[in-house]
Amino acid sequence: MAFGPHLLLATLEGLVTSAVLALMALGLSLVFGVMRVVNVAHGEFFMLGAVLAWAVTTTLGGNPALGFLAALVISPLIVGAVALLAERLVLRRLNYNPESTIVATIGLLYIIQQLALTFYGPDARPVAAPFNYRISLPWFGYSGYKLSIIGASALLLLATWFVLTRTRIGLVMRATQYDSETAQAFGIPVDRVYAGVFALGAMLAAVAAVLIVPISQAHYLMGLDPLLLSFIVVIIGGLGSLRGTVVAALLIGVSDGVISVFFSPTLAKIIATLVVAMVLVFRPQGLFGTVRR
Amino acid sequence: MRLSDTGRHSAGIVKFGWNIKKRGTGMSSIIRKSISRRTALKGFAATAGLVAGPGFVRYSQAQSSAPIKIGFQAHKTGIGASYGRWYEKTTNAAVKAINEAGGINGRPVEIIVEDDGTDPGRGAEVIGKFANQHKVDVAYGTLFSHVVIGSAPAAGENKLPYYVVSEGHHVASTKLNRYVFQPGITDVKSQIQAMAPWIASNAGKKVTQIFPDFAFGYDHRDYLPPALKAQGADVIAQIAIPPTESSFTKYFPQIPADTDVIYHVMVGPAVLTFVKELGEFYGSNRPQLFGFIDSLEAVDINSPGLEFLDGSHFWEGSPRYAQPDDTDAQKAYRAAVGIDDNGASVDDPKDISTAAHMFGCWETLYVIKKAMEDAGYQGPGDRAKLVEATEALTEFAEGPEHPQGPKTFNGKIHQCFGVQNISKLEGGKLNVVHKTSIEDGLYEPEGDYTTQPL
Asked: Which domains does chain B have, with CATH numbers?
């Protein structure tokens, strides 16, 4: 294959990875930024989103597009509810202590994963894409649905940005992130903000999963890789920074695509890990993070 | 610290060590709180009790009427879980049949299942547990090659006969040890050699291989090129894919444009993505495809996205779909395990079996039965006799005990050789189009286990 089309394929692949990664990492970043909780179970919320998408589409049957749209709404809502429950029952009772919550979310990870294995089973199950359109380029074919993921993700990111910067809810969240004690003193129900943010973070992971599931099936172990990549993105971008998360997701996604296509996927992972190490050494707050007071 | 004292505490589970008085006062409350020697001892005692507990349970020595205990190392969790579930169903069906017919040497068979998490480290632990805690007579049932390779040394150290149903070449390579057998399913090297002539003459001469980047994939990587070379065909590219990969389009540009046949062996949950992306990449203008059904075991062949495979060919150990020429033994086996004509569970048509492999569990259990009867096996003291009796086996006739077909067994390399099926996917079904003979798959032994001490 000639260099031009080869690069085009690499970039497309990279953009799809970035699109999903940005949504997922944003959820992780938001939870850490506002609550100071490192949510190790984030990948399992992603998995749960995909598994529920399968459940919703199979229960509804009929037109795949309708089933998919229903899953896009229902699955994140259920995942959000599960996250809310976990936040109320576990994280709040630990007073959001950073160390305890890491251990607690590791526990949550195993609980969700094993419940999925018990009730959903060990098989990878497919979800039909809402539409099947193969874009036929002169050199290779490409999935139209994959391209639409990039668009959908961009829209969702814009919506999140709008909520965070232009609405009252976003203002309250940012105030809590900036200084939770002062926010509380000003009458902001920090406790409820935490609950909302944790649910929102999980919902972002679930949405990312619903978008990706038609091209990668629902499987009970699918949460681990995206979790690691999200951590990489969040560390590079700067914890709690929306802009940093999106830029880092693009950086990691596209470079992963290009390096994987031209060299090897293993090299791409090596380089991503090296970048993380370099960022931690030379700019521990991340590319766009601010130094904590 | 005198460990003998701690035994007294282990009867009940002592409340766990130190209490943290103030909850959530700060991040290092656990560290800051001083721990008294006494509380620490209590903690140790409780832990020691938990660890030692199961060891105190007395496992009765095998007596003449006590069951024969077979330790089943099952992939209940991890990437092998789909296989594990069906291996377990097949095992239960075979044990039921064996017990209804009077058991082994007049004793009932009892299966003890331990989950290995499809993980080599845990696999070795499970073997140790079988040998020392459950005191089973033999261990059995592993599929994934890395788990077999990881567990084999433990079986050798414990002198525990270990009958795997793995399909990999590692047993027959004679790189493992004298206690490891594969008498129920043909190894990959033999399968490849038997099918290479068909691939070269029916699919094409220029072959690109796509395989998983671990032991099972390496068997394909190493044995396909010479097998094809002998038939005047060539492997022109080999693409290794990490087993945890979830997206494949990025590998496809490596497939040379003049490829006649893509030979694909993918194992793991991502196979549907692999096929779908291959379909999007090539569209209707694709090379021939030849695959190992391993990729699609437990997967509905009519899943969305798999239309692309229509008209392609697969290796199958035992056919998933009922074939017109099925023997009575095959029909009885399918009924006993509980799969319908489409290879799905009779209870749930969406629950697709791992039919191409799981017959190996059924047949292996009957080989264990035969070897135990030949050896006059009484209990763990007779394990060496059992190894020798297994090595003395040479042939398994097709029939209710060996429904997949006739097999020969080479006691020097602990490996059986049977017929292989090549099936074409057409009309949403896999139809067998070619059956290899046992002779097609025979090769020169690479070593001899029987020279190793018992």
From this structure: 3-54 (no CATH), 68-187+357-417 (3.40.50.2300), 188-326+340-351+424-431 (3.40.50.2300)
Q: Give me the residue from B24, B250, B281 closest to A260, CB to CB.
A: B250
Name the percent of chain B lying above pLDDT 70.
85
Q: Which residue of B has its CA nearest to A267?
A: B242
CA B45 to chain centre: 39
3-state per-residue secondary structure call for B22-68 = CCCCCCCHHHHCCCCHHHHHHHHHHHHHHHHHHHHCCCCCCCCCCCE
In a domain, A96, yes or no: yes
Contact A224, A43 (CB under 8 A): yes
Tokens 């790189």 — which residue?
Answer: B175
Test the B interface: residue of A12, A115, A136, A140 with most B CBs within 10 Å:
A140
Type of residue at B219? D
pLDDT digits (tens, 9 = 90+) for B220-265: 999 999 999 999 999 999 998 887 777 888 888 889 999 999 999 8
Q: Total structural domains in chain A?
A: 1
In sequence order, the 6+-apart residues with CB closer than 8 A to the CB of A277 are none
Q: What's the start-to-end Cα distance of chain A, in Å?
A: 52
Check CB contact under 8 Å for B305 and A126.
Answer: yes
Structure tokens, B70: 């077979």
Query: Is residue A180 situated within a structural domain?
Result: yes
Give B442→chain A minimum CA distance, Å.
Answer: 34
Question: CB burial class (10 A; 0-12, 13-18, 19+) of residue A278?
Answer: exposed
Chain A residue numbers touching B27 (CB-CB < 8 A): 97-99
Q: Percentage of chain B with pLDDT > 90?
A: 69
What's the confidence (pLDDT) of residue B56? 42
The stretch B150-158 carries a mean pLDDT of: 96
**Residue A201 domain-assigned (yes or no):** yes
Of B250, B257, B280, the CB nearest to A142: B280
Q: Nearest chain A residue to B80 by CA: give it.
A: A122
CB B186 within 8 A of CB B418: yes
**Tokens 């509804």 — which residue?**
A60
Q: Residues B440, B193: contact at Cβ < 8 Å?
A: yes
DSSP 8-state secondary structure symbol assigned to residue A88: I
C-alpha closest to that of A54 among A255, A214, A224, A194: A214
- The predicted model gives B284-303 an average pLDDT of 88
Chain A: which residues have CB within 8 Å of chain B?
A: 1, 6, 9-10, 13, 16-17, 64, 94-95, 97-100, 114, 117, 121-124, 126, 128-129, 134, 136, 140-143, 215-217, 219, 221-222, 225, 257, 260-261, 265-266
Indicate whether A50 belongs to any domain. yes
Residue B163 has pLDDT above 50, yes or no: yes
Domain region containing A158: 20-222
* Helices A64-86 + A190-216 axis angle, to 10: 140
Residues of B whose CB is below 8 A from A99: 27
